[in-house]
Amino acid sequence: MTNPSILFVCVHNSGRSQMAQALFNRMAAGRGSAESAGTLPGESINPVVHEAMLEIGINLEHQFPKIITQDMVDQADRAYTMGCAIDESCPATFIPSEDWGLDDPAGRSLDEVRMIRDEIVTRISSLIEELDIRS
């Protein structure tokens, strides 16, 4: 797939999907792009998520939670939800997607958020390999 457009979705768009967007965009290095959104966006990025991402050189300071739009869905080649398949407000109920089953970083310690971040890194690496957009 040439320069795929990926949509990462979680309910609040303040943690997992933001990490996935930033990591995909960095790791794809211009050979694909990602956006993220939520069905009930929070007011800001989770500060512990922000800290965990700064540790690996990604600053989410200018990112903010966004509500998912039909245009985002229409523009995406693929959509991935972040572990909300049992939540009644999960976007997987109306967007064809694959759910990654990730823990929500809300209320978690920095060590726990690091583990979630590192799992996202692993999944993004596999996705980039699957899409054959490695450098």
Describe this structure in words.
It is a single chain. This protein has one domain (5-131): Rossmann fold, CATH 3.40.50.2300. The chain has 4 helices and 4 strands; from the N terminus they run E-H-E-H-H-E-E-H. The chain has helices spanning 16-28, 47-54, 70-75, 110-131; strands at residues 5-10, 33-38, 78-81, 98-99. The radius of gyration is 14 Å and the shape is globular.
List key phrases describing it.
135 residues; alpha/beta; Rossmann fold; globular; four-stranded parallel beta sheet; 4 strands
State which percent range the strand residues make up: 5-15%
Poorly predicted tracts of residues: none
Taken in chain order, the helices and strands follow as EHEHHEEH
Radius of gyration: 14 Å
Sum this structure up briefly.
This protein has 4 helices and 4 strands; from the N terminus they run E-H-E-H-H-E-E-H. With 135 residues, the protein is α/β, with parallel strands linked by helices.
What is the fold's blueprint, element by element?
Blueprint: E1 5-10, H1 16-28, E2 33-38, H2 47-54, H3 70-75, E3 78-81, E4 98-99, H4 110-131
Parallel strand pairs: 1-2, 1-3, 3-4
